[in-house]
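Late entry, evening session. Most of the bench is empty. Finally got around to the prediction I had been postponing all week. Sequence below, unchanged from the version circulated by S.P.
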Amino acid sequence: MHDKTLSELAAALTAGEFTSRELTEHQLARIARLDGEINSFITVTPQQALTAANAADAARAKGQAGPLTGLPLAIKDLFCTEGVLTTAGSKMLANFVSPYDATVVEKLKAAGTVSLGKTNMDEFAMGSSNENSAFGAVKNPWEAGAVPGGSSGGSAAAVAAGLVPAALGTDTGGSIRQPAAFCGITGLKPTYGRVSRYGIIAYASSLDQAGPMARTAEDCALLLNAIAGPDPRDSTCVARGVPDYTEELAAPLSGLKIGLPREYFGDGLDPAVDAAVREAVKVYESLGATVREVSLPHTHYAIPAYYVIAPAEASSNLSRYDGVRFGHRCQAPSDLVDLYARSRAEGFGEEVKRRILIGTHTLSEGFFDAYYTKAQQVRRLIRQDFLDAFEEVDVLMGPASPTPAFDLGAKKDPVSMYLQDIYTIAVNLAGIPGISVPAGFVGKRPVGLQILGTHFAEARLLNVAHQFQQATDWHLRRPALAEETT
């Protein structure tokens, strides 16, 4: 069962090959047996999962099943989930059981999905390797000595290892697309505002966006159908109807205009990754697409702008964790100041502290205009670069990351870690959608092709990704761990 995609599992459930309960029991058994090797889950919820599976089987017996009814998945531990531990990968929230569901979780429950648990992640979504979790690093299923990417590395690793057929992640600067690339799966970051952020523990509110992670673009389309749409509880969520993202998957690519940003193929890009991406582009040419070079001239400002804006928003969002209302509280504080200081020092990890300090500094008097205001001005220029490019081409293509997955512990310098997001960060600053699809290997480690579109072009991106997957088999390849037969 675990070697099937979501769409294949849905067809098998409809055909009566097995029940949702049998499928759920199979996946839970795999998690219990194999996840000790990769540490992709923080919390597994077998009782809730089996209850949901029984309800899905009952709905199917009454003829009330929808496209996702009875299908198992996992949820990044950043989404509030009623009655379930929701930690954001942090000691600060190690004992927080959410009293309500995030809108996305609510929608998935209404669609009849079965959540198997909450996946591991970089603390408060701050990281590119999943080494910043208070619950231990996640290992890449392809090679245990490699990182799975971050911050949605637990979700990516769980899908790649066949522990779940799909999972939810969040993407603030590449945190869906980069781990998808490192783990050889498909990951979609929708347009900012396409999916509600209500109930997602905030990192950077103007950048965070939830999205699906699965083996195929078709599966991502099925999940996006369920989670996209307006939400009155989220003022940043766009009041716009949701199309059926599966309708255009089979559309031919003849006449598609592809742009290759020259800034994505320069210094710092691993030659083997460069070669894999260019081979993928040749596949598109064989499918009738045309290719031209374009420019995104402000790309080199994306990382400095992001690491002003995102920490500033994080500094504000994380100020609520003070040891008083909720979150970790230190023992025997001597006074209120000691309570604040020690609770935050004990509850937050090193990377989170670093970003809070950076953000507080850039928002302080005398530095706000010099740093934060200037970064927002640069953000506007980056957005305009993309809009200008999409006047000439339909989609942009390039690498999702400058290298394949790197070794655990290899990036000691924070700046070298930040540079891993050089091709993904600008997408969040501009608010446009992007998808990473498997496109080759460097040794045993996967390479991701990143495809970008203009605002609300998710259907087009999914079509472009799906057609590539119909012509190649990179998305079908599985790590040895996933080939376990039980």
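Two things to note before I forget:
The mean pLDDT is 97.
The radius of gyration is 21 Å.
Will write this up properly tomorrow.
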